[in-house]
Amino acid sequence: MATWAYPPLPTEQLNRRADTALAQELEWLLQSLQESLVSLKEGLQECAALLAPQEPGSTLVLSSLRSESVKGFVTRIGTKVVKGDIQLRLASLPAPRGASSTRLTLSQVPDAPDLVLQQLVSVRNLVNQSLDIVDVSTYTGDPLNAGFIFSQLHLLKETISEARQMLKGEGNERGNWWETSASDNMFDPAPPPYLSFHLSIADSALVLLIRTLESNTPAQAPTAFASDISLTGFSLRDRIFGTRQRAHDEVGDVFTWRGEEVHVKEKVRVESQDPSLMAVMAKLTALEHEVMRWVMALQILMGNEETESE
Question: So which domain of life are we looking at (predicted)?
């Protein structure tokens, strides 16, 4: 079945009417986006509130599964970890005399340095930047200027996407453990020497990595007996029982930690999902998807689906 306009209109007139209809639809979209940006701003404000420092904060359990290696908790308020009590039972970390485990407690002394999660600082800053972009799109410039609104929405999409990726643990803000481990003066009493305590964010969870380290001293010259039993590159234990599985993924690697070359003796990873960060991740994902739809709609109505913001 087909439909014709009768009498038939000239091609130029049809094109003019099509352009007029497209312009009207674009104007309608730009006007409706101003209302949509209000709802988007509310969602971003909710994210900002979840990231803001509010008492009593989030208390998260950090305990290893099926073992007593790590047991404890930390309390996060905003971008800082303000409390923490962790018990360690590691084969490579002898417990203090008279104790069954090594205890790490974050210092509550007023002048103690803060344990700041730089990833959350970046997420909070990106959310605030997104709010600024929404304000500029709403109150500055011409709201019916398609090019201006498109560039603002494209920037907004990129900023929200970066914040979401930061919560997933992507980007440089997570830091290398040998450079960003918690300093000894954050704890009271100070932790044992050659112990790395590193907190980060991955997939909306707080991740704790404990490493016991050993100085990478020059290897001793092998004795005659040692060279005799290791001519093939395997130790006597490996010959009898077979090659042992690597204890962790950093075996054999050398790191510069606090100005000294070290290697990792033992490594334990525990994590705890943070409900507030999970809510922020869900909201950012939904907001990013919504802005992406607006950008695609503008691309189509502007007549160039390949348009990209410079």
Answer: Eukaryota
Q: How many CA atoms lie within 13 A of 161 on its CB side?
A: 10
Report the half-sphere exposure of 22 (CA within 13 A, side-chain side). 15
> Would you kindly state where each structural domain of the chain is located, as residue ranges?
19-301
175-183: long-range contacts at Cβ-Cβ below 8 A with a sequence spacing of 24 or more? 175/118, 175/200, 177/209, 177/211, 178/255, 178/256, 178/257, 178/262, 180/118, 181/257, 182/115, 183/113
CB 36 within 8 A of CB 29: no
Residue length of the chain: 310
Look up the pTM and report it: 0.84
**How many whole angstroms separate alpha carbon 303 and alpha carbon 113?**
55
Contact assessment for residue 204 and residue 280, using Cβ atoms and an 8 Å cutoff: yes
Residues ≥6 apart with Cβ < 8 Å to 189: 105
| 8 A C-beta contact, residue 51 and residue 124 | yes
Q: What is the DSSP string of 131-193?
A: HHHHHHHHHSS-TT-HHHHHHHHHHHHHHHHHHHHHHHT-SGGG--HHHHSPPGGGBSSPPPS
What is the token pair recorded at 185?
A: 């003066």
pLDDT tens figures, 67-126: 899 999 999 999 999 999 999 999 999 999 999 999 999 999 999 999 999 999 999 999
Residue 35's alpha-carbon distances to 205, 247, 269, 293, in angstroms, are 34, 56, 46, 15
